[in-house]
Amino acid sequence: MSRTIEHFRVLHEIPELGFEEHQTSAYIAEKLEAAGYQVTRHVNGTTGIVAELDSGEPGPVLALRADMDALGHIIDGQHVARHTCGHDGHSSVVLTTAQEVIQQGLVKKGRLKFLFQPAEELGTGALALVDAGVLDDVDMLLGFHLRPVEECPMGKAVPAMYYSASSTIEAVFTGKAAHAARPHLGVNALDAAAHAVQAVNGIHLSPSLTFSVKATRFLSDAGVTNSIPAEARVCWDLRSADNEGMAELKAQVERAIAHSAQAFGATVATTILKEMPAAVIDDDATALVSEAIREVLGDEGLTEPKTTPGSEDFFHYLVQRPAIKGGFWGLGANLKPGLHHPDMHFDRSALDIGVDVFKACVRRVLGA
């Protein structure tokens, strides 16, 4: 059994939600310290970890990032944490890369940093590390994600994954309770919320833009069936292929929500629960990753760059620090039936491919 799969087996059995990755973080930090890295735990008061290796010679600063958190699911009526997005695999790959880089003496110049990030699923883990200043000296940052089999099968890798921007907007409509026999004495928050759902569905941006918006949660209950509810709570999921389109989409959604509430005499408060920017990927980073993939998998293993409607908080790093050359690639692993599915599984032997690709990147940037 490879070292990478050994790490995976440990991490897979201790899934932890965002900012609660205490066992995961401790395991990774201990392995990094044993390997000889200078390790900073509890970055910015979180479970985040930064490990650094200084060659002692002038050169660029390269950073590799992995996310650590699991997802929350309701399975058989129980709330459970489960690794259904492959972050345990990501951490295993980057941890093994760290161990083998230092054992094989691959860093000849500059500095190498490893970021083990909490709370990717919450959309705030990357921002916590940015706020801690861990990227202030970084020249290039690389990350990756396991891909569903439909996007990239085993034995292939994607040099650049162009993720979409996403936002989650929650609106709380407040009306006035009344007996259902006397509706004129109240303000039905449920009616206002239902109207808002339809109004948002009617939003049309330019046909040249790739976007989607849909209601994903609707909660309203007066406690009895013959009373007008005074409150309704709705969440919308917004997606756009670019950040400019997301700005326009958010503005139109918020306007539709506000006008719907006003039309029914209700008030409404909106909150952005989660937000992730669209991909910002550097051409030099993509060229580097492409060369590394060719080295490991041959020309036939390199696919074209791909786009996805999914979102990834990795791109907060590059929006907040635009001087950094950022790259984000995808690894084929025959992942089925899909990311975030309770029964997600993949070919674990792909993880060693991920290690080899990252090591090839390190050699090209920090080797002699």
The CATH architecture of the largest domain: 3-Layer(aba) Sandwich
Terminal Cα separation, in Å? 31 Å
Please, how many domains? 2
What is the CATH T-level topology of the largest domain?
Answer: Aminopeptidase
* Shape estimate: elongated
> Count of DSSP E strands?
17
Structure description:
The protein has 368 residues and is an alpha/beta fold. The protein is built from nine helices and 17 strands. The chain has helices spanning 3-12, 22-35, 87-103, 125-131, 189-201, 243-263, 283-297, 315-320, 350-366, and strands at residues 38-43, 48-54, 61-67, 71-75, 78-82, 111-117, 140-148, 157-158, 161-163, 165-174, 178-179, 211-219, 227-228, 231-240, 267-276, 306-308, 325-335. Strand 1 and strand 2 form a beta hairpin. Helix 1 (3-12) packs antiparallel against helix 3 (87-103), helix 2 (22-35) runs parallel beside helix 3 and helix 5 runs antiparallel to helix 6. The longest helix has 21 residues, at 243-263. It starts with a helix and ends with a helix.
Could you give the topology of this structure?
Layout: H1 3-12, H2 22-35, E1 38-43, E2 48-54, E3 61-67, E4 71-75, E5 78-82, H3 87-103, E6 111-117, H4 125-131, E7 140-148, E8 157-158, E9 161-163, E10 165-174, E11 178-179, H5 189-201, E12 211-219, E13 227-228, E14 231-240, H6 243-263, E15 267-276, H7 283-297, E16 306-308, H8 315-320, E17 325-335, H9 350-366
Helix pairs in contact: 1-3, 2-3, 3-9, 5-6, 7-9
